[in-house]
Amino acid sequence: MNYIVSQWGRGVSVGLAGTPEEVRVDATLAHNLFNINFFDDLFNGRLNFPSVCKFYRFLIYKHALPTMSRRKCSLAEAIKINKKQVRSHFILFKNFMNELDKTPYSYNMGMHNDGDFGYYYED
User: pTM of the full predicted structure?
Assistant: First the structure.
C-alpha cells in the first residue's frame, strides 16, 4: 500500500494507492480507531487525519494489532516488532489538495451543490 500525504486545512489528507481490498481494510481500521471518514473521490480513496502524528499512529496500529493477536503479546512489544514494517511503507509527501484547488476544473471538494439536494435556485 502506498500513501500520498497532503496538507489540507488544519489536518492532512492521505491518498490511498493500493488494491480495493487494502483500501477497504485501511478505511475500516481508520474509522474504527480514530473515527476518520473515508472519501472515494481521489486515488483509490482518501482519508482525512487531524495531523501527521495521527496518520503515523494509524500505521503503527495497523501492523501492531494483528501481531499482538498472533503472538499474544503486549501492544508495546508488538510495536517494537513492527518498526521496520511501518518504515517500509512508501509515503510520498505531495501537496495534491492545494494543486487540485488551484485548477480551473471544478471538483466537488466538500462544497455543497444545491442541485444534489433538490433545491432549484442558482448558487
Answer: 0.68
| pLDDT band per the 50, 70, 90 thresholds, residue 102 | low
Q: Cα(68)–Cα(73) distance, rounded to whole angstroms?
A: 5
User: Count of CB atoms within 10 A of residue 112's CB?
Assistant: 10
- Within 10 Å of residue 57's Cβ, how many Cβ atoms? 14
| Phi, psi of 76, deg, nearest 5 | -60, -40
Q: Which class for 61: exposed (0-12), middle (13-18), buried (19 or more C-beta within 10 A)?
A: buried
Query: Does residue 71 have a pLDDT over 60?
Result: yes
Distance between alpha carbon 39 and the CA centroid of its chain, in Å?
A: 9
The residue written with cell numbers 473515527 in the block is 35
DSSP-derived pairing of the beta strands 11-17 and 46-49 = antiparallel
Q: Can you tell me the mean pLDDT for 96-113? A: 56
Give the separation between CA 109 and CA 81, rounded to whole angstroms: 39
How many angstroms separate the CA atoms of 3 and 24, rounded? 14
